[in-house]
Amino acid sequence: MVSSDNSIASSNGSLLFDERRWVTQICSTLEEEVEEGVQIPVSVFSVPKTLLSIKPEAYNPELFALGPYHHWHPQLYEMERYKLATAKRTQKQLQSIKLRQLVEYFIKKEHTIRSHYHRHLDFNGETLAWMMTIDASFLLEFLRNYSNAKGKVFRKVPTMSHMVDAARMKLAYNCILRDIMMLENQIPLFLVRKILRFQCPSYQSADKELSNMLIGFVKEVSPFKMMENFSSIDVRRHAHLLQLLYLMIVPNAKEASETIDETEVHIGIPELNDTKPTGNPSYVKKFFNSVWSQASGLQILGVLATRPIKFLVKIPWKIISKFPGVSILAARVAKLFFFQGDEKSEDEDSSNEPPLVEEIMIPSVTELSNAGVKFSATKGDLTTISFNSRTATFHLPTVSLDVNTEVLLRNLVAYETTVESGTMVFTRYTELMNGIIDTEEDVKLLRQRGIILNRMKNDEEVAKLWNGMSKSVRLTKVGFIDKVLEDVNKFHSSRWSVKARKIMKTYVFGSWQILTFLAAMLLLLLTCVQAFCSVYRCGSRRDNVTNLG
Q: Does the pLDDT of residue 327 top 90, yes or no?
């Protein structure tokens, strides 16, 4: 009985302790908010479950934790000794203060640190300050690998030399790089700036050195090579590394975002004109495809489009279209012959409406190339995406893909989904690439044009990467990308070969009734020819002509 009372008392004691700590944290937070009077926007969110469920390994750190979200995970705690080693070296490099004084400064900035995180941090102020001091020291030492200094800090330290070598080919280096760029593994950059400030004579020199590190880092990890002439980075404008990289790739859009009201929609890029046939006439399809491929090279459609042929066709067409069965094809075939190319798309009337899933449809690279579209690489950010209808040229930024790119792309999408309130430009770009890349042949064509720089195993791996980027996100209009999608689809749909294939696929190959009707008409025609020849003796007349010759 006594033991049970003691256990109840101890449990009540721990509960009382938790309540007191909670009250203390709340009071401290409220007092600091009143004192500072400055609202700091949240920049580190948890990855949405809809994204996390698709590929959790792309969002959970593999080697080490930065910040509070994954700090106590047992599988990551082995790296703490390496982070402590960097903290010791940081202590030696501090000019006028000791590491303990730096921690005390971070304790005073507890509210600022907590404000960056969306999730509640169940740490007291001192624990959080020590954690951030050690993690910021580790991050600063890693970033020094990208400064203009010749020496590589990690290589100078025996316990850290296995992480980074001259060629940066070590497995551990790639793991660190991926972990650093994960959304839930971000820490505020002002902590790194403060440590560097105590190692440099002034804020100006500290900011210049940190700017050089960040420029080198972004040039190294960014899949888009658009920073050749970038001179400096204002460290104070960026909350953390992932936000910095995002803003380098996606400059602030001026257009207002138009978002579907908190609706999650599964974004898929279906095939254009993907109409299911009612039958499976495979042998007929092969025959018509063979005939069409031979006829397409003879410029027959160019002849059919001339005015005399149109006039000759138009007169009997009104009569022929009255026959049973032919009326089904009347509208489509009329478009094939009499299309003027100046009719407006229905999508133009709804250009201001929120986007639907169907509006993301776009043909693959192979299909566009077969329709006459040319691809051209640009050396810039995502705002360089465009389509020139006059030259049929699709402009896309060059993207470099390696073993770290998928994690980077997914976390940029997660950051944009959770943090950025404007248009989801980067997400729309990934949907565009998802749509135009279906197979390794599509990747090969883009690689030959310099749009994709493939540093992965093969083109098939790249195709799998982009095809795996389909996910559930909120839909939003991105004006210039939506205009490109519309122009590309309009150009592709206006091609004669595409129209004819669509008609044959939808109304001929997809309907046994039409095939039966055509067979009956052919049989009727042959019967008429046979009857005509039986009356007028076609064979004997041919023999007479041959004998006269």
A: no
